[in-house]
Amino acid sequence: MAAQILSSRPGPRKILRSVAFYLLLGAIFFVLLFPFYWAFITSLKTEIEIYDFSGNFLIPRNPTLGNYDLLFKTPRYFIWFGNTLLVSVVTTVISVVISVMAGFAIARMRFKGAALAGALVFITYLAPKGFLFVPLAQILKDWKMLGELSSLYITYPTFLIPFATWLLSGYFSSLPHEPEECAMVDGASRLGAIWRITLPMATPGIITAGIFAFTASWNELLYSIAFVNGEMNKMLTSGVVGAFNSGDFLIFGPLMAAATVSSLPIALLYLLFTDRFVSGITAGATKG
Amino acid sequence: MTQSKGVTRRTFLKGAGAAALGASATALASCQPAAPAAPAATAVPAAAATKAPVVLKGAKVNWLGGPWSFLPELDPVIDTFCNDWAKQNNVTLTFEREATNLNAKIQTAIETGSGANIIQLANPPATFAKSLADVTEVATFLGAEGGGYLPAGPFQCTSAGKWIAVPLGQHNWFINYRQDWLKEEGVDKFPDTWEEALALGKKLKAKGRPFGMTLSDKAGGDGNAAPYLILWAFGAKEFNPDGSLALDSKETIAALEFAIKLHNEAGDPGEVAYDDGANNAGFLAEKISMTANVNTIYLPALKNTPKVAAGMNHALPPKGPAGRFGACTLPWWGVLNHTKGADLDAAKDMIKQFFSMANMSKFYKAGQGYILPVLPKYESADIWPADPKLAIAKEMFKLALPAGYALPNQTKLSGLMQEKVMVGKLFSQACSTGNARAALDGVLKEINDLKLLS
Amino acid sequence: MTTAPRSQPSPLSAFFGRVLHKDKTLGPILLSPGFVFLAVMMAYPFFYAVYLSFTDKEAGSAANFTGFENYQKLLSTTLFAKTVVNSIVYTVFALVLKFAGGLVLGTLLNRPFVGQRAAKALMLIPWIMPTVFSTLIWNWILSPAFSIINEVLVGKLHLLAQPLPFLRDETWAMASLIFINVWRGVPFFGITFLAAIQGVSTEIIEASRIDGASPWVSFWRITFPIILPVVIIVMLISTIGTLGDFDLPFLLTRGGPNNATTLFALTSYNLTLGSGLIGLGAAVTMSMFPILVILVIASLLRVRRQQDNI
Predict the structure, then answer these.
(1) Is B335 found in the same domain as B286?
(2) Which range has highest mean pLDDT (A235-244, B71-80, B228-237, C29-38)?
(3) Within-domain flag for C58
């Protein structure tokens, strides 16, 4: 690998390159991560200290958990958290199941219209969210779902399925056909072979699609505000922002606390699955 | 001062009066500059105050509005009363407060004919005129009870001769300033004219204590009020009484030229992009010495930053060549017209009961001048703050004009201009570029877009 | 599933066995849930939206067919012209910077160093963080009155006399928007480029190095062509997301100052949901659709050719 080649270079130049390497890496990571440090520090300050830039403002003078207290005491905070979790899980499961089936069919089965279906699925991924808002609202109204949490179960997959299907079909086509065929020779039914042989092989791809879907659901803003009514049905994003924001006026202390807290579940998920996730996305991308 | 104020009011009244069709002569005695009462096609006598015998049982009402983020104590005042009312009348009532996407929620409700019934907003109801139910009966009743609306009420809430919303009250913008810092400059009170204010501001800015007026379009509240204090003081206005645009005038340029000077020589550089909270935060953090605001700097200062509370005071907006002008925004409640039958009766009854003088006095009092009535009878009611530093509220009560002046009443265009904070944008653009003419041309183009697209 | 009596199961189960075995039948069966869902929830709304763009539909009132009136109206406004220009500027700059940044990041991370695993995970935070919250943080960092960057540059280091007008100057606001988009997207580019680079066989690169190629030349001659399909796909996904971006301008600048940062989705949102002008809003989004279609077809063709060549 490139690194091995680098290591064969003579001393001083190597050190110089190392210094440059770490400086550049450090600078990039500083830009990427400083905002979170600043948010975290702000979340630990009192309301007055937040706006006080005299002295060393990079470390809180009188650290306080007051903002977290304020955040967690927001009426219904935990209901919003639960809603977000519930909607994210439900829509992820729905989308991944449907996408695994569709992706498998498009990638590995020869039938009339398979290629066309694949292209159409990807084309649907093009529709921006604001674009479908009005007709979707109309459909939801006809189905008596407008205003309910259930409206999100069926609308989130509109932007999750196209992408997940496309990703998974790429992944499935990267897998060999032989194991599945061998299993069928040994007497397994087609579905049995798929279930026991191919799907386990596709786990990284499925996890990737799942993480994608979960993240997109967790982060969604527009539909969750427009299709759902009532304080009890809010998502974490819209709820918290609404609680500490009057349109143009932001109360940064608790908001920074919320930013810190709300990214934790997703960050954990990625920490656990980084490697699988990466192999999933590249396989999906190259073979798609 | 009184002179210019009278002139202003009268010119304004000409317009407002035209809107108030069939102005009834009820209870004008206590109302000082002859404010016409509500357009009362069917003037309801005060005796009708007794509850109408409508059956509300089983009706449903969904209330949708923004939170009173600057004074959260006001939300429960609404909730408590209305929930009690709902219980008594067996009505199912829900509350929803949406800060970020209120308009989206309302448009959804309108388009699908479901969801919100009563909406609370501050931008003119004229933008929703087609979708709001006629509440003339409720408004007329409340107007009669309160001694006939001040002109701002019908100006904001009537359209084509009928009431499409009921005014909740007015937020008045006045000068918040650091009296202790002024005293260091040998000045006792905030100056009475904008020119003197500029001279004072230069000295303060040199000491790192600039003014911080919200000359910005990033603030839906302050941005629709603070810039008008300058605009009007220089004799400029957005509209002529006949509805034509009046913004392209030498007065506007004069106002902008002054604002540019004020911004460059006395203002905080950030003020052209302030959001609604920036001036509050800046004042409380002792970064600015003056801003135009409601009492929502002073009230939290009393609790959290006593030094600022002790050092600050309030003043009337300074005079310009055209006189002294106050600016207000006017929140209202309206009923979306998909609300029918018993639900409609219930929605109207809830407004009628909540807005009744006996009850609203509590609401106004809780705000300590944050929100004031638009009915003159309240002048003698127990709603006025006791704190002498908030006595300004009573002076502002009848001074302030809403954005959209000097139309006869708000139109779709004037409503859209406030929604997009066009005058705030005008000042923001002029002050950040220093070019008044170019800023005005840019904004005129955008207003033209608004006309085309509405 | 089987309702047939147990005494004679063979013909029916054999039938199902066949149906669930053959590509010709099992394929469509597996595809159908997704197909039906997308047809009902996307194709129908899509054609409905196309129809709406040719009507004077407003919230709460009926739609009347008006032909191209909406498009004509839009073309006569500065708002629409700005929307188009902004969207293109935003997308082009953000994509180029994400591409360059992603390559740099991917190459850097390809070299082993202490804490590499943690770095890979930490780096993803800007990308995985809910946009609402990360944009709030940037709102706070770029705040007109309390920007930490300005406090440091003006107040502490005295490098500048005046604070930088991040969100109040038209150019600065667009630059800030692009920067945050890049900040949010670069980790994803970096991690996928890294994975693709790691997939390139070491022998080929070493062979080229032995032949005397510099790392720079060997990267562009050998590595890059191999990872190109990944690059194209990632760029494509990102182009669609960037061109259709709503959250960032909505939360950070509301399209201002002076409509300098409004993009297709936000303009459409403001018309549709802000003002209830549904037909016009639909026309705005419709006008970005052809661009997207061309982009996608071009990239998919490119990827296919690439794969055929290998």
Answers:
(1) no
(2) B228-237
(3) no
Q: Find all residues with CB under 8 Å of A2, minimum gap 6, and list them.
A: C107, C110, C111, C205, C215
Maximum Cα–Cα distance for chain B, whole Å? 67
pLDDT of residue B313 exceeding 70: yes
The residues, any chain, with a CB within 8 Å of residue A206's CB and separated by 6 or more, are A96, A100, A168, A171, A199, A280
Q: Using one digit for the tens of pLDDT, what is the confidence trace for A215-235?
A: 889 888 878 877 887 778 888
pLDDT confidence tier of residue B426, bands split at 50, 70 and 90: very high
Q: Which residue of A has its CA nearest to B284?
A: A48
pLDDT the model gives residue B229: 96
Among B70, B105, B112, pick the best mutation site for testing chain A contact (most A Cβ within 10 A).
B112
- Together in a domain, A247 and A273: yes
User: Same structural domain for residues C199 and C164?
Assistant: yes
What CATH number is associated with residue A221?
1.10.3720.10
Task: Residue window 147-176, chain A: list those with CB within 8 Å of chain B.
Answer: 147
- The domain of C22 spans 1-42
The verdict on C207 and C289 lying in the same domain is: yes
A26, A101: one domain: no
Q: Which domain holds residue B68?
A: 2-170+330-383
Residues from chain C that touch B111, judged by Cβ atoms under 8 A, are 59-60, 276, 278
> Cα separations (Å) of A108 from A99, A118, A201, B83, C27?
14, 12, 14, 60, 9
Q: Is residue B389 part of a domain?
A: no
The answer to whether B234 and B291 are in contact (CB under 8 A) is: no
- Return the minimum-mean-pLDDT range out of A172-181, A243-252, B298-307: A243-252
Whether residues A110 and A221 share a domain: the answer is yes
Average of per-residue pLDDT across B249-268: 97
Distance from CA of B409 to the nearest CA of C (A): 19
**CA-to-CA distance for C298 and A41, rounded, in angstroms?**
46
One domain for residues A165 and A220? yes
* Residue C254 lies inside a defined structural domain of this protein: yes
Q: Would A274 be classed as within a structural domain? A: yes
CB contact under 8 A, C246 and A110: no
For C63, name the nearest residue in chain B, comparing CA atoms only: B111
Q: Do B297 and B290 form a contact (C-beta atoms < 8 A)? A: no
Q: How confident is the model over B370-423, as pLDDT tens digits?
A: 999 999 999 999 999 999 999 999 888 888 889 998 899 999 999 999 988 999
